[in-house]
Design goal:
Oligomer: single chain
Mean pLDDT: 80
Strand order of the largest sheet: 1-28-27-26
Radius of gyration: 32 Å
Number of helices: 11
Helix content: 25-40%
Low-confidence stretches: 13-23, 212-229, 345-357
Number of strands: 30
Largest sheet: 4 strands, antiparallel
Structural class: alpha+beta
Distance between the termini: 29 Å
Length: 543
Amino acid sequence: MDKRLLAAFFISLIFLFPQIVNAEKLWQPQNSGINDTNIRSISIFPGNDNFICAGGLKQVYLSQNGGQLWEVIFSLGPEDTEINFVTFDQSDPKILYVATSDGLFATKNQGQRWQKIFRKLSETANNVRWIELDQRDYQRIYIGTDEGLYVSSDSGQSWKKSAGGLPRSQVRSIAVHPANSQVLYLANTYGLFKSIDLGQSWSRVYVTSYKADDEQDNGGNENNDETSEVQDLINCVAIDSRDNKRILIATSAGVLISPDAGESWNKLPSEGLTEDKVNFIVVSDKDGLIYAGSRDGVFELLPELNRWQEIYQGKIFRDVRSLTLNKGAEQLFAGTDQGVFKTVSPRNVQKQKKEERIEVVAVIEEKGIDVEQALKRLALSEPTIQEVQQAALRYAEVVHPERIRMLRRNAKLKALLPDVSLDYDKTVYGSSTTKVGFVGPRDWGLSFNWDVGDLVFNEQVRLLDGNARLMVQLRDDILDEVTRFYYQRRKLQIEHILTPPQTIQEKLIKVLRIEELTANIDGLTGGYFSQYIKRKKGLSYRK
């Protein structure tokens, strides 16, 4: 095959695969001046991208030059209190709010003086987890606590608890409709609630627990009973400013979207996500692109491929707690376990992709890279996807479907066989007067019993069917995960061959990413993948 055609084919594969489409997106750390890199919340002032605030575990930082340099403007003491959320006022970058486990704080002069503007007697009410500001009425503030929702209409001077159908529960996220501030969305442990009258009344539009109907908060006298099982907890709510009926929720089981303001819900595909639990979600007001943050990084949903891709270039963090886009969606900022990071966010257009393909072909021809030989070496030095899949199933001790079918067939045949009983009896007679005893006849007995009900309803078959369904689900999950890691790794290897890193930093990033994927595959195969490669290398050395 012509090497030029072969190179062009694999280059096309690279640009088709989402793992490499955004290779130009490079995360850059923005931690100059940040001591507490455990960043939990990040916010950009809507009127000026230079003003950014970030909240760590105990300190709040302010940058006035787009994240290049930070200064500490708020600190908590050594007592057991934490920062949960930070945000700017909508009208003035000098005004900031900090939600903590001990109430809500505010400053009107960029941290020179702070005032606690919300504090309750109960510990649950004091734990403020979320702050949301009305984009039209700047004096209206919503805060979510472990006890429910509180509202202020005078910039925090007074507060009123919102009930109107809300269960007494931990508030996890709040979103105000950007075009109609009468409409609110609130997520708590019981689901997603919607209000069309500034929070005076609420209706549930997505359910995570069915106990909310029995525990409405009519003043705070009910017991806060949250012992019921909760599924798919909502961690974040987002509204698409380009289409205000488009609502998204990030849950512990992926991302869901409603095209009709909460009337119906569809789950977005999970392909490409390496972690089901999504911590945070934002929607670009420029092009409607969706970004999700999880314990494994930041992912972008590709509409044309209907799958997620990770933004991994320059990634030295793991857990992402908060995301925000600057004005015009030109840069994405992430609050992570390793500090603040930013990246250029616009996607490549087709023209740019074409130019990059031409450039890669030119590099291959100039350097004389033998693509065919390089790919052959990869194939010979590593196990095939089928071998890796089988190793993963063996390591997880997943029973083969044919084995399950055989056990089910044997269980049905067992119902045709009788239960066989062999008895031996003897009778002993005696008299108390004569003091004489007699041993009667020795009797043998053989009996056969059939349970006719087993022919119709066999309990063993039912148990096998249940176990088979669980086994099939486990098998599918393992195969999906190991296949995803395998081809992510292979795509990075191909990219490394076709476009070698130009700097030491780029090389280290790619090598570490490949090692991370190798470790993931080893974790699913019990070390089989690395052991296979070592054996192949040992054989090649001996040759």
